[in-house]
Design goal:
Oligomer: single chain
Shape: globular
Number of helices: 16
Distance between the termini: 80 Å
CATH superfamily of the largest domain: Acetyl-CoA hydrolase/transferase C-terminal domain
CATH class of the largest domain: Alpha Beta
Largest sheet: 8 strands, mixed
Helix content: 25-40%
CATH architecture of the largest domain: 3-Layer(aba) Sandwich
Radius of gyration: 23 Å
Number of domains: 2
CATH topology of the largest domain: Glutaconate Coenzyme A-transferase
Amino acid sequence: MNYREEYQRKLRTAREAVQVVRSGDWIDFGWCASAPETLDAALAERWEELYDVKARGAVLTWRPKMFSVPDTAEHFTWHSWHFSGLERKMMEEGIAWYIPLRYSELPRYYRENVDPIRAAMLQVAPMDEEGYFSFGLSTSHLQAVCERSEYVIVEVNECQPRCFGTEASRIHISEVDFVVEAGQQPLRQLPPANPSEVDRAVARLVVEQIPNGACLQLGIGGMPNAVGTLIAQSDLKDLGIHTEMYVDAFVDMARAGKITGRHKSIDRGLQVYAFGMGTQKLYDYLHENPECLSTSVDYTNDARVMAQLENFISINNAVDVDLFGQVNAESSGVRHISGSGGQLDFVLGAYMSPGGKSFICCSSTMTDRNGVVQSRIRPTLKEGSVVTDTRCNTHYLVTEYGAVNLKGAATWQRAEKIISIAHPDFREDLIREAERMKIWRRSNQR
């Protein structure tokens, strides 16, 4: 088969390709930094003739043009597996909705539960000599999406990295319906959050518990970024990587010589991830890098896989925590903030790993919209808040005031430990509430 000839037969303009979309259809719209901008613009041009088109994806870093048309909600709505700040604003406008699901379940969910998708619109790297398009930064669950789609439309971006990966990281020209060329379209970037002094304090408490040869997973935000920076500057060595999201901190660690993966019992020497998102530095690092393995999220986030990796260390953030040890990483009351993602997957997997540890990190306080300082450690979670990690699963909890292991602790022991790392200004109030809730013993204060 001549793959170049097949490519030319399937080549279309963006306007031609999006003609397959009809009113009422579901479409899947790439993933994170790989959402297709050329196809979006063409779809937005059809707004007057299309109604109730439902697009699905996650972590938008730019506002697609289809969500800026007149009477947007009549024509296009967005359904997200994980919210960004932009998607929170779209939710408030009534055009975005969150889909709760553990990230590890996504490929199976598509294969077994999703009705046929009208079109998958995915940004990919240019085709190679064997006729394959790399999904680039976003392997994740896209293979499953393509299997469930009536039409697979690839938007070829010359700036999209070609990432080394498993079979799930690519799609063959024979499985594609239309090819749309986007030329050299710079990828959207997500600069690392600048860590605060509190973030650095928390990071120091976590890093001191990481042994040489450990395997790491980092979440997104200032705190995980601070952990990565400290590791790059530390004496730690021979670290491994197994994570859902590949972030800039891993690049810094690798360039500092901290990552070898030589002690991994599986995928030895490889940095395993489901998708990458960050700055151009990260994108350049992942491009054709044989040390990095892009694969499906049902592998990266499978707790049974993590259990095979010794000293697996999982580091993630929280919005707030209550005195029972319940962790909310998704909402502020009923106002949705981000999503469940893979946090619970990694909390479970890290604990199953021999010598593994899961760290949930947060600052002890936050300042609300009215300028009032509030404790992130609460007697009970705010009404309507989502429990991301149940109290049975929480392992280590860390603030700038300390790190405590909650696994197996009785309710009064948990309250004592959690209050010990709350901000001093709130501890007495928390003790009074713990007494009222009957999870405090007078002997705690001896």
